[in-house]
Design brief:
Helix content is about 30%, strand content about 15%. The chain is of the alpha/beta class and about 900 residues long. Strand 10, helix 9 and strand 11 form a beta-alpha-beta unit. Helix 10 crosses helix 14 and helix 13 crosses helix 14. The structure holds ligand MGD (2 copies), iron/sulfur cluster (SF4) and molybdenum atom (MO). Keywords: 4Fe-4S, Iron, Iron-sulfur, Metal-binding, Molybdenum, Oxidoreductase, Signal.
Length: about 900
């Protein structure tokens, strides 16, 4: 850290970040270091630090080294940050900071960080072209943005400008999205959360909110499909890692289906290597055994799912009562009744109703999974039938079907077993089906929304303060079937897929084609449509506005992405570094570091990253600047506020923000002045909490808490009605409408996946068409890296370099041996189309025999402005063609990244 003049050794840093964890498994989960100020903070380091913990100030704020946004404290001495620790006053992070978070200090003081706006002087764009960056004034930078964005929209309309951003600065992304729409009226946007497509939708449908998790504290059996949640990623990583570890020590059994043994597989009781893209088959086989063995929660299926629905066998459609419009169940007395008055619905059976041959939804489910025997799936997934039987039996038995427990005086079903999954199951075609097959297992064992089961992060909120319901939400009910609706992901406004399916128009309005996918959240078709504007009769964007992202590396093949970027007439970038995408930017505006800025409500409303649970109160943390921004670089809020001001759009911008953040009229900042970010933070807090807990209070105290009640965690604790789907009749409703719309618009659109029950279907790369091309590359996330940029951090880079699997290609040792390959060999991975990437091999027992695995999959940075990251790691995603509709899941916009490659040794 020579540039800051401080003597903090790397050893001191690693100690602060949990030396044991880092050296043992590069896990990166730190033990809580933040006790009360001035007490034993020095004990975070075994060696004497260069500063006194009692000196200077400990300022509470929020980490942004990954999207979890844990609460932290920054030790600031003489205006210099000398250490970052967790903030034990906050449930967000629970006092922990991980290795990435502790390394934030190196980003703050990184001399390669950009802090002054620049414009390109070399008009030629390409990875091999020096953009010829020239420093400009902020005034000129704003003018260039304003002029070019406006001109494109005046020239070609609102679709001429596309905004891009993702999770690197999540609330900033929300503000970016709002600002571009409000100030310029742009209509297009692009993102690449190839993690949640399908997962979020199923979690919405089953838990009433877009993110769900095992109720770790009460759970005894966790099955994970394609995720390292709670061991390296997600689920408010620092909030979960300790609880999950404690519970494993207490006997929680942990099973991981993953082609690679990453952080999750390493810590699991059982790692199940599975062939990529086949999870649906494994999950349906588990369902098969649960059903066969009677390990199902009949009561739950009858009373909390739509399983008893009467389905017309001829059409596959549920029967609705003509008078009330409500679905029909068969009562024990042999008469069909609407779901809400049927006293004892029959879960199974075949009946004749109104002259129609009917079966219950559950009978059809049972018949449907009959073919998915453990033996049947073995050939598809490579998982031994006996393993599936064993896991199914353990899961079903761990669920304690029939038992109840009392929580805060309320008797609730106790189902301490949960099946979870994330990006591994979504990065494939038919991802919606995979997620569906996986998460439905929780319905079978009755653990959906049960104590110890699979619960939404924040399905219901009665308000963040007593007597102020301003910040409150609750999923409504879709009356025709009595199914729960949901609260949206970030801002928790009411959301209903059923309403979209039944009542919306389906005409796509953007390249993302969202309207024709009523059960999707992601505008990923933009990646196809921008490349092929004729395909869906869309208008390609001319100008791109990239905020806190690296879009060249987001998706598939980088040369394809580069071509798209070359074709934009103007590209605006807002970042902290000159990443690879910046080689295609025309102007770059630096954002200050997260330690130099204030963000009004860092976790918005629907927290997305903060898990719920009774042990985690509603927590409103502070994100305040702890040091002055280098060269006065602004935050994104300030930057967009400035653009709004220049465009004369303050009123529009601020009132939209007011609506998003539920600001009460009496607390609004003036609408006719440039946005004052601190004043806005104040108005949000007073509106959503109370007068006392304003921004000044939060700056001092760091965090405001309000206890969660039992009905905010377990949605049926108040005895209210509500069911979740098992038989997805609405998919069939959607199918007809999607097909009609596609025909009307004369566009190609796949609709085969609109079924009422989940299936496994082969995705891309499943078949080996040339025996030389037999390897499937996959990638994973570890605890010390964040997406495509953290390797630039010297501390993180050093850890990656010490990790034998850090920047290498990991391959199963036995497969390597049959190919005459060994650790240390330089190898090339190439596709049948001739695209290739190269790297150094490291063998292990921790990879499926058909796979190779790397961290990230989008590394191998080409930016010389990020010297630590330059050329490190292997970008396997470059091998995947990214602009073909054949790779898209047409239900939820997931993208198939499976491709068979040849591996060969090179000199
Ligand atoms: N440390 C850290 N934490 C993060 C992030 C970060 O960058 N760093 N990013 C955040 C974000 S935006 C996200 S989306 C999440 C990602 O969180 P996760 O989804 O938990 O992370 P990954 O490691 O990418 O998980 C994908 C896993 O699926 C496996 N996999 C690949 N294909 C298949 C398959 O077909 N089937 C199965 N069963 N497994 C498969 C991979 O080997 C990998 O282990 O993490 C969040 N948290
Ligand atoms: N191969 C591969 N591709 C992936 C993934 C993967 O794991 N592997 N993950 C996918 C997923 S799930 C996601 S969510 C996306 C993630 O995509 P992004 O969130 O776009 O992440 P990155 O591509 O790493 O780009 C982040 C950029 O933000 C900058 N940055 C960091 N902090 C700030 C800040 O505070 N302000 C500003 N202005 N800039 C900042 C960094 O310098 C970096 O250039 O990528 C997707 N694509
Ligand atoms: S998990 Fe993410 S937000 Fe939390 S301390 Fe680590 S890097 Fe920071
Ligand atoms: Mo993501």
């Amino acid at each position: 850290m020579s540039e800051s003049g401080l003597n903090i050794s790397r050893r001191g840093f690693v100690a602060g970040a949990g030396a044991a964890a880092l050296t043992a498994g590069l896990a990166g989960c730190a033990s809580g270091t933040a006790e009360k100020e001035g007490t034993d903070l020095a004990s975070t380091s075994p060696e004497k630090m260069a500063y006194d913990p009692n000196e200077g100030e400990w300022i509470p704020t929020t980490c942004n080294m990954c999207f979890n946004n844990c609460s932290i404290k920054a030790h600031v001495v003489d205006g210099v940050v000398v250490e970052l620790t967790g903030n034990s006053d906050s449930s967000i992070g629970r006092g922990h900071i991980c290795g990435k978070g502790a390394a934030g200090i190196m980003m703050l003081y990184d001399p390669n960080r950009i802090t002054k706006p620049m414009k390109r002087t070399n008009p030629k764009k390409g990875f091999d072209e020096d953009p010829g960056w020239e420093e400009i004034s902020w005034d000129e930078a704003y003018e260039l943005v304003d002029t070019n964005v406006k001109a494109a929209i005046e020239r070609s309309g609102p679709h001429a400008v596309t905004g891009m951003s993702m999770v690197a600065s999540q609330i900033g992304s929300l503000v970016r999205h709002t600002a571009l729409g409000v100030i310029y009226g742009n209509a297009e946007g692009s993102c690449s959360d190839i993690c949640g497509a399908g997962v979020h939708q199923l979690e919405y449908l089953l838990t009433g909110t877009g993110n769900a998790r095992p109720d770790y504290l009460n759970c005894n059996y966790v099955v994970q499909f394609g995720t390292n949640a709670g061991t390296a990623t997600r689920h408010g990583f620092n909030m979960t890692a300790e609880i999950f570890a404690d519970r494993r020590r207490e006997g929680l059994r942990h099973v991981v289906f993953d082609p690679h043994m990453g952080a999750a597989g390493e810590k699991a009781d059982l790692w199940v290597p599975i062939r990529p893209g086949t999870d649906a088959a494994a999950a349906l086989a588990i369902a098969n055994v649960l059903v066969e063995e009677g390990l199902i929660d009949v009561e739950f299926l009858k009373t909390r799912t739509n399983s008893p629905s009467l389905v017309d066998v001829a059409t596959g459609r549920i029967l609705f009562d003509e008078a009330t419009g409500k679905s029909l169940y068969m009562d024990a007395d042999g008469t069909p009744k609407t779901y809400d008055v049927c006293a004892d619905p029959q879960l199974e059976g075949a009946f004749e109703v109104n002259g129609k041959q009917c079966k219950t939804g559950f009978t059809l489910y049972k018949e449907h999974v009959a073919k998915y025997t453990p033996e049947y799936q073995e050939e598809i997934t490579t998982v031994p039938a006996a393993t599936i039987r064993r896991i199914a039996k353990e899961l079903g038995e761990a669920a304690c079907i029939g038992q109840t427990t009392t929580v805060d005086g309320v008797e609730l079903p106790y189902r301490p077993a949960a099946v979870d999954g994330f990006s591994g199951i979504t990065r494939h075609k038919h991802a919606f089906h995979a997620c569906w097959a996986v998460f439905t297992l929780n319905n079978l064992i009755g653990s959906t929304n049960a104590v110890g089961g699979f619960c939404g992060f924040d399905p219901i909120c009665n308000g963040w303060a007593d007597g102020n319901p301003n910040m409150a939400w609750k999923p409504g009910i879709w009356e025709p079937e009595g199914l729960i609706d949901c609260a949206g992901l970030l801002l928790a406004f009411p959301n209903s897929y059923y309403k979209k399916v039944y009542e919306s128009d389906y005409t796509p309005t953007t390249m993302g084609m969202l309207e024709i996918q009523p059960i999707s959240e992601d505008n990923h078709f933009e990646h196809v449509a921008q490349a092929h504007p004729d395909l869906y009769h869309t208008q390609a964007a001319e100008v791109a506005f990239c905020y806190a992202c690296n879009p060249i590396k987001w998706w598939g093949n980088y040369d394809e992405q580069a071509e798209i970027f070359k074709n934009y007439t103007y590209v605006v970038g807002i970042d902290m570094f000159l990443n690879e995408s910046s080689y295609f930017y025309d102007v770059i505006l630096p954002e200050c570091c997260y330690l130099e800025r204030t963000e009004p409500l860092p976790h918005a409303s629907g927290n997305h990253r903060v898990i719920g649970g009774l042990h985690n109160p509603w927590t409103v943390p502070v994100w305040q600047k702890v040091v002055e921004p280098r060269d006065g670089a602004p935050s994104s809020w300030e930057l967009f506020g400035e653009l709004a001001n220049r465009a004369g759009k303050n009123a529009e911008f601020i009132s939209t923000l007011n609506m998003m953040f539920r600001v009460k009229e009496e607390y609004s900042v003036p609408l006719d002045q440039k946005l004052d970010v601190e004043a806005f933070a104040d108005s949000v807090l007073k509106s959503n909490i109370d007068e006392e807990h304003d921004f000044a209070w939060l700056k001092e105290h760091g965090v405001y808490d309000h206890p969660r009640t039992v009905d905010e965690v377990y949605i049926w604790a108040n005895g209210e009605p509500g069911r979740v789907p098992m038989y997805f009749d609405f998919m069939l409703e959607a199918k007809g409408k999607v097909e009609a719309k596609a025909a009307e618009l004369d566009i190609p659109w796949e609709t085969d996946d609109y079924q009422a029950l989940p299936d496994w279907k082969p995705g891309c790369g499943h078949e080996i068409t040339d025996p030389d091309y037999d390897i499937l590359p996959v990638y994973h996330t570890d605890a010390i890296n964040t997406d495509s940029w953290l390797m630039e951090n010297p501390y993180v880079n050093e850890i990656n370099e010490e990790n034998p699997y850090g920047y290498t290609i990991e391959m199963n040792a036995a497969t390597a041996a049959t190919k005459g390959l060994a650790t240390g060999d330089k190898v090339r991975l190439s596709t049948q189309e001739g695209v290739s990437v190269e790297g150094v091999l490291a063998t292990s027992e921790g990879v499926h025999t058909e796979c190779v695995s790397v961290i990230g999959g989008h590394w191998g940075s080409k930016s010389k402005y990020m010297p630590h990251a330059l050329d490190k790691g292997v970008p396997v995603v470059h091998l995947v063609p990214g602009q073909t509709p054949e790779r898209m899941d047409h239900i939820c916009s997931a993208f198939d990244q499976c491709i068979r490659v040849k591996i060969e040794k090179i000199a």
